[in-house]
Known about the structure:
By secondary structure, this protein is mainly alpha-helical. 45% of the residues lie in helices and 6% in strands.
Amino acid sequence: MEDSSRPPSPTVASAPFDKPSADVILRSSNNVDFYVYKAVLVLASPVFEDMFGLPQPSNPSQQDIHPDSGLPLVHVTDNGETLEYLLRICYPIRNPVLCDRGVIAAVLEAAVKYGMDDATEQMTQLLHGFFPRESIHVYVIACRLKLETLARAAAHQSLKQCHHYTPAMGHISAGALHRLLHFRRNHAQLAVDYKFCEPSIESTSIAEPVIGPAEDPITSHPFDDPSADTILKSSDGVVFHVHQFVLAMVSDVLSKDLGFAHPGESSGSRTSPLVLSVPEDSQTLLRLLQLSYPMPDPDLKGFVATYTLLRSAIKYNMARAIKYAQTKVAEHIELHPLRVYFIATKHKLVEEERVRWEQVAREAALRAVYEKSDPYVPEMEDVPAGTYCLFLDTRAKVFAIGDSLSSRWTTQLQFTPSPLHWSHPKYESSNAPRVGLGNIHLWLGLYEPAAPPAGTQLGPCTDNRLLAVTRTRHRARSIWRK
């Protein structure tokens, strides 16, 4: 019985990629051998031109030589179908007829990877044929491959329809989805060079201020001990004298990195310490070390500094620092609910972090859900668009609950019905939910103890209103549990 886990035996591609006069063989990911000519590949692809222009080893390894023909063997990651279509476009033969969007996207991805401009242009034009019905799918392909012109064309075509979530959105970031929604609602006011595939410099700079150098004396006790056996050097040139056994106890990652560290300058007969340069700035490195040694927790202020510490702690797998940074991130829920939501959602995807971040994500979402619209935040680039779609769908459900309640109440807690889906280009116009002071009190009732807001004049049906708020709170919470 054959082992299904073993790759299939190599087979030869169909004509014209089976000619024995070829001078190189491309082997696909599913072991299909294409006998091709270097000259054709060099003319079509600068990637292959550079590859074949490199000096070849005098004794190549066996895996780089075809065992039967003795020709050079190049392993590629594309499957046989994609590679055949791509090569047919490059060869002076009739181009293949492609109608399937998935196949076209695969060939386009390969063409972009190998820098084949002609093939890229042909596949791009084929994708235009899917407008406007599948403009969102084309937008996903364009953003994934960083094809700004195609993404812009897809965004314009998307204005003709309302689009709901599709699994394909899992291939792009929440940031790419946010830029599309922003364009659909504000395209008339946006610059012609508005970017879709990547955030603009202006949008990223608003939330990521530069962390300046630490104040002196940053390397105070115990990180100024010259007898320490290790030196950590921050990205801004500050040195920390630390002990290798401490780092080994708190971080298996740092312990492994120290195995590649180089020794410093010798001083007499004393053994020189190991020197390891790390990409963290001095303030972040100081806080990591304070959370590694038996010292009080550092004084941590500011959202960016907090999230920077969290990312570094996770990278180095430092348990105490992770727990401390997570607690500090959660303290920013009230001021930065959406940013905390995306951070928590990203980290709860890791199995061992799931329980730790579930509650943080839920509370952050309940804080952010009553906002009519969302500003761009850099953390959108770290999570798939499906995460943001879930949040937007939940917001719509919660507003529907509030609208249902407001139709029964004769108080200031009023909602404007929103019959439009959140992806509609006019969602944020006058038809969108209006959030006033009364509404905020209602949404606060979703997660605070059910009690009348300060200054509320109680009427004869107050008890019923409080009961409704309590029920609304539980209904909203149940949405996030699903």
